[in-house]
Design brief:
Layout lengths: L1 E5 L7 E4 L9 E10 L2 H7 L10 E2 L3 E5 L5 E4 L12 E5 L4 E2 L6 H4 L4 H13 L7 E5 L4 H12 L4 E6 L2 H9 L4 E4 L4 H12 L3 E6 L3 H5 L5 E9 L12 H7 L2 E4 L7 H16 L7 E5 L3 H9 L5 E5 L1
Parallel strand pairs: 9-10, 9-12, 10-11, 12-13, 13-14, 15-16
Antiparallel strand pairs: 1-2, 1-4, 3-5, 3-7, 3-16, 5-6, 6-8
Helix pairs in contact: 3-4, 3-9
Length: 311
């Protein structure tokens, strides 16, 4: 079968041929409609997450059909049969049913990226009606979805923070009530955060960590929560202990797999409904399998669109 193969670590996948997988007990053979490219895929290819068998097919998430015709989404494949191929292997318990009508490429952002936003805000962050939310790293796909989902989940005020001025303007179009441009002097950013928070952030969806979160703590509301799901700005932060204690700020680390498959399946379906109603808009670009190396390089540099591979 056609597949995108990783043959060395660190490495970049290339198109090739791979044996079609044969499912064992508790596994399903999936005929792949489309697969999603994510930062975690690049990190795996760099040897930063785990050591995959070599050679192996890359890709964790995808949409396809089981042998009996069930249409499914999955965000974990069985090594070495990843999702960037005509067929892949997925454990029975990792399959999530999805609507028939929605196009696979349109729905793909609601997987790893969308679920990080939805479960981070709802399941982990316990977003309540009327709260003020900060999306820290709003220019990313997770962030763009987060701006829109926060409103759907009842946020009273949504603030988008990122470096890119044009993408911040895009976040306003998507429903953000205010923006903060990052990248300047820390004291200036903190002052901008406090002004934008208009009383304090109740919930922060943090995709950046490092200096951006340091500049945010002073703008937190009493008992505010920070859902920590990414480290695009750096893996270490120096947080002001007194400000955190005085405000009762909580740091809540989160990854999608903390939530059950049932929770993720419900969230995926809700985002599909939002999309079909025109209430959730995400930029998507389809890439043929033979161009996987170029897509990999674009993902390394942060494409700000969801890259979807068609096998």
């Amino acid at each position: 079968m056609k597949a995108a193969l990783l043959t060395e670590l660190p490495g970049t996948p290339a198109p090739g041929d791979f044996d079609r997988p044969e499912p064992e007990a508790g596994q399903q053979l999936i005929e792949v409609e489309a697969a999603g490219l994510n930062p975690v895929d690049v990190n795996i290819s760099l040897g930063l997450v785990f050591t995959p068998p070599l050679p192996s097919v890359v890709g964790l998430e995808g949409i396809g059909r089981t042998k009996d015709g069930r249409r499914v989404y999955y965000d974990m494949t069985k090594q070495p049969y990843g999702s960037f191929a005509e067929y892949c292997l997925v454990a029975d318990e990792d399959l999530m049913s999805i609507p028939e009508g929605i196009d696979a490429a349109t729905a793909m952002p609601f997987g790893i990226a969308g679920l990080a936003a939805w479960t981070g805000l709802d399941w982990k962050g316990k977003l309540s009606e009327g709260e003020t939310v900060l999306i820290l790293g709003a220019s990313s796909i997770v962030g763009q979805i987060g701006v829109q989902v926060a409103k759907r989940l009842g946020a009273g005020r949504v603030v988008a923070a990122a470096r890119d001025e044009a993408l911040l303007a895009r976040c306003v179009e998507l429903g953000a009530d205010a923006t903060v441009q990052l990248g300047g002097d820390r004291e200036e950013i903190t002052a901008a955060m406090i002004e934008a928070a208009d009383g304090g952030f109740d919930l922060v969806l943090d995709l950046l960590w490092a200096e951006p979160i340091e500049a945010t703590i002073e703008a937190m509301a009493e008992f505010g929560r920070v859902v920590q799901i990414g480290g695009s700005a750096g893996l270490h932060a120096e947080l002001p202990a007194r400000a955190m204690r005085n405000r009762g700020v909580s740091i809540l680390p989160h990854i999608n797999y903390h939530a059950s498959v049932a929770v993720r399946e419900e969230a995926f379906g809700a985002m599909c409904e939002m999309s079909e109603a025109g209430d959730l808009i995400v930029p998507v670009e389809e890439v043929p399998l033979e161009d996987v190396a170029q897509a990999w390089e674009r993902q390394r540099n942060g494409p700000h669109v969801k890259l979807v591979i068609r096998p």
